[in-house]
Amino acid sequence: MSIEKIYRKRIIPAECIELKDDEFVYADDSVLITKWKTLKPKAEFDHGASAYIFEKGIKVSKFYHSDGSLLYWYCDIVDYSADLDEKSLTVTDLLADVIIYPTGRIKVMDLDELADALEQGLITQEQTALCMRRLDGLLTMIDRDKFDTLAEYLDSRDL
């Protein structure tokens, strides 16, 4: 799949923006890898890299401090849709996220937003079920010490 544009679609808040400043590092039919600077600069981090892992429905990102040290791994549960004519990929954030800190601590995020979105009709029952299954798969990988198979997409490229 040849991708030239990436769009990030959020449910809460509702928005769809092109990630036009992301730099494409690698792409094949199973993964797209980018590196980027934050859209809105923050004191705690300013750049990172992401691996969009199509089969898993996960975007795995490394967030870095401005000095280059790792802040944390951030895993978004997502869904993908491609527009082959436009050579674009739209990545829909399904709200649930997992943060993995360098200490090994794990934090599951935004399940309250997922519940709100379902109650408000902003996300379908099918999308919610897909999100929960993908989240369970990710947490199972982490629990079984298999996260390195996802981390390798970025680590093997020194990102």
Summarize the structure in words.
This protein is globular. By secondary structure, the chain is an alpha+beta fold. It is built from three helices and nine strands. The longest helix is centred in the C-terminal third of the chain and has 19 residues, at about 125-145. It is about 25% helix and about 40% strand. It starts with a strand and ends with a helix. The protein has helices spanning about 110-120, 125-145, 150-155, and strands at about 5-10, 15-20, 25, 30-35, 45-55, 60-65, 70-85, 90-100, 105-110.
Our count of helices gives 3
Euclidean distance between termini CA atoms: 22 Å
Oligomer: single chain
Low-confidence stretches: none
Derived from helix and strand composition plus strand pairing, the structural class reads alpha+beta
Largest sheet: 9 strands, mixed
Spell out the helices and strands N to C: EEEEEEEEEHHH
Q: Helicity, in percent?
A: 10-25%
Quick one: how many beta strands? 9
Could you list some keywords that capture this structure?
single chain; 159 residues; alpha+beta; 9-stranded mixed β-sheet; 9 strands
The gist of it:
The protein has 159 residues and is of the alpha+beta class. The protein is 23% helix and 42% strand.
SSE arrangement:
Elements: E1 5-10, E2 15-18, E3 23-27, E4 31-37, E5 47-53, E6 58-64, E7 70-83, E8 88-100, E9 106-109, H1 111-119, H2 125-143, H3 148-155
Parallel strand pairs: 1-8
Antiparallel strand pairs: 1-2, 3-4, 4-5, 5-6, 6-7, 7-8, 8-9
